[in-house]
Design brief:
The complex is a heterodimer.
Chain A: H1 8-17, H2 25-37, H3 40-56, E1 58-59, E2 66-67, H4 73-76, E3 81-88, H5 91-100, E4 105-109, H6 127-135, E5 141-144, H7 150-163, E6 169-172, H8 188-196
Parallel strand pairs in A: 3-4, 3-5, 5-6
Antiparallel strand pairs in A: 1-2
Chain B: E1 2-11, E2 14-20, E3 25-29, H1 36-48, E4 67-76, E5 79-88, E6 94-97, E7 100-101, E8 114-117, H2 123-126, H3 129-141, H4 145-169, H5 176-215, E9 222-227, H6 235-241, H7 243-249, E10 260-265, E11 268-269, H8 270-273, H9 276-298, E12 303-306, H10 315-325, E13 333-337, H11 340-348, E14 354-360, E15 363-366
Parallel strand pairs in B: 3-13, 3-14, 8-12, 12-13
Antiparallel strand pairs in B: 1-2, 1-4, 4-5, 5-6, 6-7, 9-10, 10-11, 14-15
Helix pairs in contact in B: 4-5, 4-7, 5-6, 5-9
The chains are: A alpha/beta, B alpha/beta.
Chain lengths: 205, 367
């Protein structure tokens, strides 16, 4: 939709907002008009926050996660197990796994998964930095925690081929019945795999 | 299994139609272009979620209309099943069984087996190998879910591998590991597909021959052979051997996507030597063999759709085919024909229940 704008500033702001995913011109206009109602101080704060994204955000030199310093809080934490690296597709996945509070190792953010159809090849991912990290030594396990799609699987496979010689253990997330799921609603492939890869029963687990 | 009622709204040339059908033989007669084939295609839609003729869903909606609905009541093991299909412009098509929408269309495929015999089938003989692979896929997918899933996975991987090969020529540097990953991943569904196709054609050939000889009693020798690069060499090795070539050609030159079926008559290639009548006999026999195969695998008689099959046949072959399909071995049948009198005279001799529908001016009457 095209509007005739009464102000060049307004038009520019709307154009910038509508570049964001899921935001169209109408929503962008609503957001901008909302901001104009705010007092000057909070508007400045909003703008400066966005400016700082460009000037202050850095990528952790070890795991490529987003952070403020040279290392991200996870990599900087001495109490965490630096000999286990969990490979994830993006920054969001790090947050999701951290939220489980079950993982005490460190991460490596690939920045995508291999899909030539989408123009993403192995060279576009943070694999060289992962390899360098492994060469520095003391890594005993890699956990492949990518999505269970065909592209995720291909990427797992590729990483395995490239890295298996230099790592004692490469594991991947278990695939099976979700907690709280009833059998009749599980898809056949997952259920079939869960039966093939069944695990010994343990009490209190 | 049979279709009891069929209703159409805005489907191709019909704005609204409701039909009550015979569990045995249903004949649609009328002049050229009145929409006889469209009725058969609507039934094909309900069974396999797509048109037999036109892969673009929205082109099956009546011109200048926004949506189209096909509904049918099928009797399956004595239980009524309402199948509903709606196609809308700019929206996904919706399929419902007993008012409940399917999550995936693939879940519906196989429930209602169907075999269509149509003049379009001649592409199986005259066109390239992809038509024959399409035939293999459509038959096997109707009873083998693993095969269907394997095909989807194989095609996805193949597309990724081909794109990767293209990119090597462009800006990407050649990553050997990456290509090997695609090789190893393609091999898994590829080998299974090859095996299923081999077993299928082996079973199909004798049934096919016996039908051919029933329709054409003068004993012409017909042959059908599955041909695949995987017969001689292991698939992984094939892929490894052709890596250099694939990089130059920028696509995957070996694999089950190059399979073919070789069709022969009296030792010669069908396409070059067979007459039109012979070709037609060949195709009808192939489709009837497909019918038997699906019947055997699903333990249910598929619906048989005969679209204008008699056009290149002499009277004796027509009688012979009608005689074969009116046997109790077959179930519900839909036939289109231009000549009502001829159809009636043949069916009167056959001693089976039948219904004839006359189509004229977008209207269908039972006669």
């Amino acid at each position: 939709m095209y509007f005739t704008y009464s102000s060049k500033q307004l038009e520019d702001a709307v154009r910038e907002f509508s570049k964001l995913p899921g935001i169209g011109t109408k929503t962008a206009l609503r957001l901008v008009l909302h901001l104009l109602k705010e007092n000057r101080e909070s508007l400045d704060h909003f703008g400066n926050t966005i400016l700082r994204l460009g000037t202050h955000i850095r990528y952790c030199k070890d795991c490529m996660n987003i952070c403020d310093d040279e290392l991200c809080p996870v990599c900087a934490d001495k109490r965490r197990d630096h000999s286990i690296i969990c490979i994830v597709e993006n920054v969001k996945d790090v947050m999701i796994i951290e939220n489980t509070r079950q993982y005490r190792g460190v991460y490596h953010v690939l920045g995508g998964i291999i899909s030539p159809m989408d123009g993403i090849g192995p060279a576009d991912l943070n694999i060289d930095s992962l390899e360098a990290r492994i060469k520095r030594g003391n890594i005993r396990e890699l956990i492949l925690a990518l999505s269970a799609t065909m592209e995720g699987d291909t990427t797992n496979y590729y990483l395995y081929r490239r890295l298996s010689k230099s790592i004692p253990v490469i594991s991947t997330l278990a695939r099976g019945v979700s907690i709280g799921d009833e059998l009749e609603f599980i898809d056949e492939v997952t259920l079939g795999r869960s039966i093939l890869n069944r695990v010994p029963f343990e009490m209190n687990k | 299994m049979n279709l009891e009622t069929l209703s159409l709204v805005n489907f191709k040339n019909f704005s609204q139609v409701e039909l009550e059908l015979s569990p045995r033989i249903n004949c649609f007669v009328g002049d050229n272009g009145v929409g006889k084939t469209n009725i058969l295609d609507a039934i094909h839609y309900l069974c396999l979620c797509k048109s037999y003729f036109n892969p673009i869903d929205t082109q099956n909606i009546t011109h200048d209309e926004e949506f189209s609905v096909i509904q049918g009541e099928f009797l399956l093991d004595g239980i009524k099943n309402e199948i509903y299909c709606s196609i809308q412009r700019n929206k996904n098509k919706v399929f419902k069984r007993n008012k409940k929408e399917y999550d995936r269309l693939a879940h519906h495929i196989g429930l209602l087996p169907v075999v269509m015999i149509s003049p379009e089938d001649s592409v199986l003989i005259t066109e390239g190998s992809d038509e024959r692979r399409k035939f293999l896929n459509s038959v096997i997918s109707q009873y083998d879910k693993v095969y269907l899933d394997d095909n989807i996975a194989y095609n996805k991987l193949l597309a990724q591998r081909n794109k990767f090969l293209k990119n090597i020529q462009g800006s990407w540097h050649y990553d050997r590991d990456m290509l090997e990953v695609y090789n190893e991943k393609l091999v898994v569904p590829g080998k299974r597909i090859h095996h299923t196709r081999t077993v299928f054609t082996k079973k199909l050939v004798p049934i096919f021959r016996s039908y051919y000889n029933k329709i054409a009693p003068d004993m012409e020798a017909v042959d059908l052979k599955y041909h695949s690069q995987l017969e001689q060499v292991d698939f992984l090795e094939l892929l490894v051997q052709s890596v250099e070539k694939d990089i130059i050609m920028q696509y995957t030159t070996t694999g089950i996507h190059k399979d073919d079926i070789i069709l022969k008559l009296n030792g010669h290639h069908m396409k070059k030597t067979a007459s039109q009548g012979q070709q037609k006999t060949f195709l009808v026999s192939l489709k009837l063999a497909q019918f038997d195969f699906i019947r055997e695998m699903n333990k249910v008689r598929p619906i048989l759709l005969l679209d204008d099959v008699f056009d290149k046949f002499d009277e004796s072959r027509v009688r012979q085919i009608i005689k074969i399909v009116t046997d109790s071995h077959f179930g519900q049948i839909f036939i289109t024909h231009t000549d009502e009198q001829k159809m009636r005279s043949i069916l009167d001799d056959m001693n089976t229940e039948f219904k004839i529908f006359n189509i004229a001016h977008k209207d269908i009457t039972s006669i």
